[in-house]
Fold:
Amino acid sequence: MATVTIDKKTFMELVGRKISDKELDYYIPLIGVGLEEMHEDSFVIDVNPNRPDMLSQQGFARAFASFIGLKEGVRRYSAKKSDYKVIIDSSVKKVRPYTACAVVKNLRFNDERIKDIIQVQEKLHITIGRNRKKAAIGIYPFEKIKMPIKFLAMPATEIKFRPLEYPGELTGLQILSKHPTGREYAYLLEGQEEFPVFMDASNRILSMPPIINSHDTGKITQSTTDVFIECSGFDYKVLAEIITIITTALADMGGEIYEVKIIDGGNEIISPNLSTQKMKLDLEYVNSVIGININKSDAKNYLRRMGMDLEGDNVIIPCYRIDILHKIDLVEDIAIAYGYDNLKPELPAIATIAGQSRMHQLKNIISNLLIGLGLLETNSYCIINSNDQTVGMANDDAEIVKLANAHSTEYNSMRHSILPSLLNILKINKHHEYPQSIFETGYVFSKDSQTETGVAEKTNLAVVMSDADYDYTTIRQVLDYLASNLGLAIELKEESFPWYIRGRSALIKLATGECLGSIGEVNPAVLENFELFTPVVAMEINLNLVLYALGN
Amino acid sequence: MDIKAIISKLHPLERKVISSLKDNITNRELESKTSLSGVEVMRALQWLENKKLITTFDKVEELISLDLNGVKYKEMGLPEYRFLRAIKDSPKSRSEIIKEASLEEDEFNVCIGILRKKAAIEINKDKELLFKITPQGQKLLEKPMLEMLFLEQNFPIDKSKLTDEMRFAFDNLKKRHKIIKVDIVKTRIIKLTELGRAVIKNTPAEVKVIDKITPVMLKEGSWKNKEFRAYDVEINVPRITGGKRHFVNQAIEYIRQIWLEMGFKEMEGPIIQTSFWNLDVLFVPQDHPARSMQDTFFIDNPSKGTLPDNALAEAVKAVHENGGTTGSKGWQYRWSREVASQNMLRTHTTCLSARTIATLKKSDLPAKFFSVNKVFRNETLDWKHLFEFNQVEGIVVDYNVNLQHLFGYLKEFYRKMGYKDVRLVPSHFPYTEPSMEILALHPLKNEWVELGGSGMFRPEVTIPLFGEEVRVLAWGQGMERIITEYYGITDLRELYKNDIEQLRSIKSWIKL
Structure:
């Protein structure tokens, strides 16, 4: 989501009448836009990513005016013919292969409008431009440029121009280290020997996309009336969409759009393409998805309020509505115009049988047995510190599923046992009254090449009990109580585990031989690692196996 | 409270004290009269005072009592007395006197000092020292010594009540080693109130009330025709704590119950998912910001998983690239299997809905599913951000469901959750169209609050998964917000901190 600041005066001029704060407050959410802040002279909206056409004040005002019924129907835009050319040099194909361009004339810039156009440019960069990675936009004072323009790649050190708001000339490479914007976006050109540049017919560099414009030929001022706009990137469709959104916004400011012929090897593309799109109206589909019964003329009205129109069976879609991919998208627009507040809540006559997961049922049964014994259930994160799992548990060789990009070192791995989580809980609770007996059921993770992701996920139960005179018998009684209540035949076999005291721990096995888990008195070396000074006894079992055993 | 009621509730200790109670009596006197311990008497007095039967004030006294030697001399006689007795008939030597009067060495020396001061003995030197009684000494033996009389008193004695003679003896003894000691003691003095007098008058000397019921009483029936002492049932008693479910899990159970009541089946599935299931099947383009390292946890090793059967993977690829058979334009880019096979922690439970739809056959419809389970976002833990939390999600799959049905389910679901009304406003999610934000009327604030998201799955999602277009109503929301609001928790970290005191004392999740 992106926020856009709307100046009330500009907005009302565009809409065509005065709009009260109350109306703004009421209508804005109904269009599907968030109203974030309301100020005396302006307000801030939050635009969903599917509607980049509303990232400009002009685009938002356009949608608003249609929706409230002031200026309904399709806004048509066209570009005047011209012989302006932009030539894409083959050298640039491997670094930034495409550009879409336009020229807009007769603009009267003032401070307000310059701010406005910079805002649109920035918001488009952040959103569909994916922070300039996918698309970067440049706007230039047309009077300072000599057509035709070339889009080419040059060795980074041979590029020389004065970047925006910088005292002197720099090479392409220097820009990446010396200019603030250069440093910010340097990663986008990292590792390349040649950088893309736009160059005019007098061989002056206009800009080095996606980083920065030239201060001499790429800075809009109050005296600017005509502009050249380019958008460069890797996917022509996206670039063309962005040019459409910007040029239509500029046209709403009073500008006249001119075509630019883009020569890309053997191909010639006329940019921008401002023609409307057509999509067939499937009225039955509309009615059945929304659950209403409207006719064609209703549909036409609703479409017109969404800035579209209906001609025959064809919905006319304005060029800037790049979010219409499928007829379902038309359904949503009609539904929005129909008004979600006008929907009637209905429950369909669908009979279905409810059912809960068997694992969840088992977890509830076990939890209820354990709380009956006076144990407290805990709920902790699946993501824990990897060191607590290995060194902490005296089990340095444990194979842990680690996260690749955790922000914090405290939480950097998936737990393969619940015991470390519970020992950490005892650690932070030492100042509270003992005995402390807690349990948790939850997911544990281990590497397993047989699964889809290479990780096996199981559900475990762990119990830890801590008090001055607790010993193996204490925890063994809990295990026996659970097993007998579950009707589970288990066997214990003495076994050593690094985290238990040798000779005071056992493997818990099903009568059929599978290893269910382990039980024992926690090794004082482990207690020391968790800064615990009261004896702890513990057990952990795999509930997937319990479920399997109970199912048999 | 009337007198009878007061009497019926008297604790056994109070009854015992009352039987000996009179104006100006002290706690110490009560101790000896009732043979209760000091603590018991004080407790009873405190209760009686609370009930306004008595008033008390404290008097500070110096109490004289016998020390170690005092106790011994009271029995054996003072050493100087024994000394004189030993030489009453003839002078004797040091060793003879010590033996006959059973004196300690140091006692002998003290006696010499005292007796010479009283001119009761003479010391003659022959071969050895001989001690001879004087006529003054004989006199001392005739009538009891003041110090001896003092020791024979009943201790403790109030120092302020000593007669002149006694004070003389006290002063002498005080100087000597461990004969008497003086303690500063607080004494509680009791005054009866009018109510107290009335209660005493009406309390039967011996009451046959049952205090603790014993198994023997029940077996023998000895409780019959007796009264039970009434307790002060309004008094505070010590706290106990018990085992219980974690409060977040209590809330999860409550929400699961709502889904079950509405006829939904529970979905479960892996936490680690390939990007394919978490994002690609949901028509999220591969360069969507949701995939950025900032928002999503990726797995270090194994970093990649495998894609499901080729037909589904191919259908998803086609939908992304050009819409495939769905009638959509698609996103128009080259879809990468490599990107789709990246392992990540699921960012939503919608991947479970997708997996579930992929397993459905036409004959399974209509079908309704829910899940309440963990999801993950790569956040740094702070008071308003968790990296791991619970999402509530439900879907209804059928050919004939529509938006009004979605609205109907939402109203019902949120009514059960305690919200009076629900509104929908347009929103956007990559995998639903239409997409709506759910606003619910908050029962206390009486204003619309944003609760969750809802919509119908796009054909670009359902067709590859199910094989043909089917309607899927979907809605969901995070759970933590409802829980923090219910418990008045402002720091999200407290939800999963597991502070044992918090777990022991937090109230149960009750929404009926």
Summary: The longest strand of chain B covers residues 54-66.
